[in-house]
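To: structure desk
From: M.T.
Subject: fold request, one chain
Message: Could you run this one when you get a chance? Sequence is below, nothing fancy, just the single chain.
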Amino acid sequence: MRDNEILSRISALVAEEHELRGRLSAGEVTSEEENERVKELEEALDQCWDLLRQRRARRSVGENPDDAAARPASEVEDYEQ
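Reply: Done. Structure tokens follow.
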């Protein structure tokens, strides 16, 4: 996945999160459903940001950014920003 594809994915995940919160306000989903999906979205966002950081770091030291790989959500979800 290229940087622009990762950034597009991040934008789509953020948009879905905002839409989901709006649906909760409108009573279209329960708070339990919203919380469950938001957790999934946050994990996916953490993975995307981690992959983007890896690619940028590799590029900055002259390595191939395409060698970066997505890490499991359990590994990246508790990283400090």
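Reply (cont.): The mean pLDDT is 93. Let me know if you need anything else for the meeting.
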